[in-house]
Amino acid sequence: MPVKIYLIGYMGCGKSTMGRKLAQRLNLCFIDLDKYIEERNFRTIPTIFAEEGEEGFRLCEKKALEEIADFENLVVATGGGAPCFFENMELMNRTGATIYIAPPTEILVERLLKSKNERPLIKGKSREELTRFIDENLQKRAPFYEKASLIIRDKRNLEVDDVLRLLEKQ
User: Fold this and answer.
1) Which of 26, 37, 97, 148 lies 20 to 30 Å (CA to CA) from residue 65?
2) Domain hosting residue 62, numbered range
3) Residue 116's pLDDT band (boundaries 50, 70, 90)?
4) Is 12 annotated as contributing to ligand binding?
5) Element (DSSP H or E) covering residue 50
6) 9 is in an annotated binding site
7) Is 29 known as a binding-site position?
8) What CA–CA distance (Å, rounded) separates 59 from 67?
9) Is the pTM higher than 0.85?
10) Residue range 34-63: mean pLDDT, rounded
11) Dihedral sign for Cα atoms in the order 157, 19, 50, 53
12) Looking at the domain assignment, is residue 136 inside a domain?
């Protein structure tokens, strides 16, 4: 079993929820990359976006991933775009197991419309705009996401046992 597991996928796919459960079950530490970035930079993600734009945020994200790459015995829930910038995906694959959680667009839309988190990239979008935005982004991000060691598709209610079974087969 790997000592470092990175969960990747689009926002709203369940990385943080699954990450906490998986870490608890495997007796590993859990890091939510966005929260780690906020703590390291003493600012919220929306504030970093507002002050530095997406490029500034992505640089903070890259630095945080490089730091985390040196840690052991943990599960990391990355931000949705983290695998798509710099050499982040290669770094994660080199230093741990990567699991791409890939539910269908309809599930992502449903979850994101209900989300209480402020997400700068989707703020103010209607259901139709959000669906189009997600589909376009998934197409762009697919080449990065598909580099994951494991891919879990079409699961509405993904359970920890599902992930553990896949990890054992690896």
Assistant:
1) 26
2) 4-157
3) low
4) yes
5) helix 45-68
6) no
7) no
8) 13
9) yes
10) 95
11) negative
12) yes
15 is in an annotated binding site: yes
- Residue at 162 is within a domain: no
Confidence category of residue 2, pLDDT binned at 50, 70, 90: low
Q: Is 13 annotated as a binding residue?
A: yes
Strand partners, 74: 4, 29
Residue 163 falls within a domain, yes or no? no
Q: What is the pLDDT of residues 50-77, one digit of tens each?
A: 999 999 999 999 999 999 999 999 999 9
pLDDT of the residue at 58: 96
Contact 82, 36 (CB under 8 A): no
DSSP notation for 129-142: HHHHHHHHHHHHHH
105/107 Cα distance (integer angstroms):
5
CA 30 to CA 78: how far, in whole Å? 11
pLDDT number for residue 117: 67
10 Å Cβ neighbour count for 127? 11
| Distance (Å, whole) CA 106 – CA 134 | 10
Q: How many domains does the chain have?
A: 1
Q: What is the CATH number for 134?
A: 3.40.50.300
Distance (Å, whole) CA 31 – CA 92: 14
Is 162 in contact with 103 (CB distance < 8 Å)?
no
